[in-house]
Amino acid sequence: MTQTTQHAFQAEVQEVLNLMIHSLYSNKEIFLRELVSNASDACDKLRFLSLQDDALLEGDAELHIDIAVDKEKRLLTIRDNGIGMSRDEVMENIGTIARSGTKRFLEQVKQGKDDGNQLIGQFGVGFYSAFIVADHVTVLTRRADAEPGEGVHWSSDGSGEYSIGQIDRPHHGTEVILHLKEDEDEFLQDWTLRSLVNRYSDHIGFPIRMLETPPAADDDGEDAETPAPEWKKVNQASALWTLPKGEISDDDYRSFYKHVSHDFEDPRCWAHNQVEGSQNYTSLLYLPSHAPMDFMMQRDEPRGLKLYVKRVFIMDAAEHLLPNYLRFMRGVVDSDDLPLNVSRELLQDNPTVRKIHAAVVRRSLDLLGKLANDDAEGYQAFWGDFGTVLKEGIVEDNGNRERIAGLLRFTSTQDPEAGDVVSLADYIGRAGDDQDTIWYITAESLAAAKHSPHLEIFRKKGIEVLLMHDRIDEWMMGYFHEFEGKKLRSVAKGDVNLANDTESAEGDDKPEVSEADSALLERMKAALGESVQDVRASQRLTDSAACLVLGEHDMAPHLRRMLEQAGQALPDSKPVLEVNTGHPLVRRLADAGDSDFEDWTHLVHEQAVLAEGGQLDDPASFVARLNRLILATSEAA
Ligand SMILES: Nc1ncnc2c1ncn2[C@@H]1O[C@H](COP(=O)(O)OP(=O)(O)OP(=O)(O)O)[C@@H](O)[C@H]1O
Q1: Cross-referenced Gene3D superfamilies, in alphabetical order (predicted)?
Q2: Are 201 and 37 in contact (CB under 8 A)?
Q3: Quick one: which H or E segment has residue 275?
Q4: What is the pLDDT of residue 470?
Q5: Complex ipTM, two decimals?
Q6: Does 423 reside within a domain?
Q7: Closest ligand 1 atom to the C-alpha of 82?
Q8: 370: CA distance to ligand 1 center in Å?
Q9: Are 21 and 165 in a shared domain?
Q10: Residues 77 and 54 reside in one and the same domain
């Protein structure tokens, strides 16, 4: 070996290592899955590159992963003949540079009560899990396109530093040698290792081999030789998705999911489809049980499915196979129709990919629909984790809007405490045939939605209203106007005519406005000037004095505020002030003298702004006005 150099681990890497070394993991054995998974990825990469240049295989086309044990020295070795790493790659991948995942992993562990156990692997810290069971780790590796003299030796005990040097390494690929801690003897046992491979890595696409001593041919001869151990395959080594469905057990599906997704938990459900005909492809789609801790941050991060072509791994996170709003799905697509040299650019505009994409969407929505039907509790859990993401589909996927809409769940006035449990089908079922509108309100919070004055008439008439309080809802509803022939309308926008929505035909519900009230409304409008578009008598209010109503296509105030805060310039739009002419405050206003009239009118308007969660343009004037009126009222009393 040429001279080795010492390097300090990057601080965050060291923190991860400390966690591995000092925390008590209930599931130590996952280190083997992580290392075998890395080895399998390395074999995948080499197989892919060798399609262009088979010299990279250096005459060794049988890609495989070996697990070897040296009981005396307490060594466990995981060796692959995959792509290998250069010195720079070793430093980058397992040493100096903290990858974004490492940082986030730590943040999540620090924030949560989780000891990190569930998180390993989700954040690209898989390799470091070796230090859960090892007090010293050595990596010997050489890239398949490097000279034999350019091998790399890396070693560390996980505390502060690692050493790196150059070695001769006749064969490409990587060898990870774990020196096991004193109390980790079980991982030196042949049967433990076999059963772990069996459990976690049975269906990765490459043979995992262990040494096996064949039985002696004949043991009665004195000098019968003990046969030499031979490398024997200990896993199925058949890509799971290629097997007939009848031959795959649920446990097989679950363990393969863990390999594909690096998730520690079982998947919630899956769909496996083998399509033959004008198109030939297989998809194996999984719905995770829970969102990864940092899931919502991942909108711009790699997403998608693993793409294989004719059983050859082509790429991770093939985003063209999966729309953004299904980015929580995991899995594999294997196509017989794509060329092996397909690139990301080629995928972008490829008719075969478009068809697979459409089918993946269909299958994913089917899977969710089935979950909703068969397992209400499971579906609620899914909705809690990924519902907001699925809603993006209403905007992004016109063609599947109705299907996605069927999967949405809302809170409603029926039982606001029950949470998001109401489907549109539930709503329609309860509403009855007479009601031709699905009513909803969007607001900044559930409390704001629940207490909105806009709901008053709906409460009085017993009409259910969906209470939408997710940030995305107002944006979503801008694209979503009809479901199964029923209109979707906001209770806070446009005219409300409930004549068609109640069994008791009450005419067109237009309030009788006396001449005196008309004059009052005109006066109020004049007093409010530019702040409102109009002042009119309300059909919505039964208890409150006033509320603000938007035009049918106007943006809800909370979304407007959010966008304005983000610096977006929006066209001006003014609300209408609707007034409950029977309300005592309004009656009081009618009796007010000229000097008080303006104050009372502004107060009614300002109340309406506050009631929908808005901010006053001039809070100080509001306070002064309020005080004037309180004092005047108490003096009069
Ligand atoms: N056996 C190996 N052969 C070649 N490269 C490897 C091998 N093991 C690890 N690496 C490299 O080191 C990187 C870091 O590995 P690590 O297991 O920590 O994270 P990861 O596999 O990228 O992420 P995740 O575990 O979330 O999939 C890998 O991405 C790969 O580039």
Answers
A1: 3.30.230.80, 3.40.50.11260, Heat shock protein 90, C-terminal domain, Histidine kinase-like ATPase, C-terminal domain
A2: yes
A3: strand 267-275
A4: 93
A5: 0.97
A6: yes
A7: 3
A8: 35
A9: yes
A10: yes
Please give the annotated binding residues for ATP, written as ranges: 34, 38, 80, 85, 93, 100-101, 122-127, 174, 344
Q: For residue 403, is it within any domain?
A: no
Which pTM was predicted?
Answer: 0.77
Q: Is 94 in the pocket of ligand 1 (CB under 6 A)?
A: yes
Task: Output the domain CATH number for residue 306.
Answer: 3.30.230.80
What distance in Å separates the CA atoms of residue 252 and residue 331, rounded to the nearest whole number?
Answer: 14
Mean predicted lDDT score pLDDT of the chain: 88
> Is residue 565 domain-shared with residue 446, that is, in the same domain?
no
- Per-residue pLDDT of 262-301, as tens digits, reads 777 899 999 999 999 888 999 999 999 988 766 655 566 6
Q: Contact, 323 vs 397, CB < 8 A?
A: yes
285/342 same-domain check: yes
- Check: CB of residue 602 under 8 Å from CB of residue 528: yes
Gyration radius from the chain CA atoms: 33
Concatenated DSSP letters for 329-372? -EEEEEESSS-TT--HHHHHT-HHHHHHHHHHHHHHHHHHHHHH
507, pLDDT greater than 50 = no
Number of domain units in the chain: 4
Q: Are residues 380 and 286 in the same domain?
A: yes
- Rounded Cα–Cα distance for residues 402 and 226 (Å): 70
Q: What is the CATH number of the domain that holds 203?
A: 3.30.565.10
Report how far apart, in Å, the C-alpha atoms of 243 and of each of 205, 239, 248, 485, 573 are: 12, 7, 7, 44, 60
In the predicted structure, residue 633 carries a pLDDT above the cut 90: no
Give me the domain span that covers residue 189.
Answer: 2-215+228-233
Ligand 1 atom having least distance to the Cα of 83:
4
pLDDT digits (tens, 9 = 90+) for 82-116: 999 999 999 988 876 556 566 666 776 676 655 55
Question: Is residue 308 included in any domain, yes or no?
Answer: yes
Nearest Cα residue to atom 27 of ligand 1: 124
The residue-averaged pLDDT of 543-565 equals: 86
Same domain, 421 and 446: yes
Residues 441 and 336 in one domain: no
- Asked if the structure places residue 494 within a domain, the reply is yes
Q: Are residues 265 and 371 in the same domain?
A: yes
Q: How far apart are CA 588 and CA 593, in angstroms?
A: 10
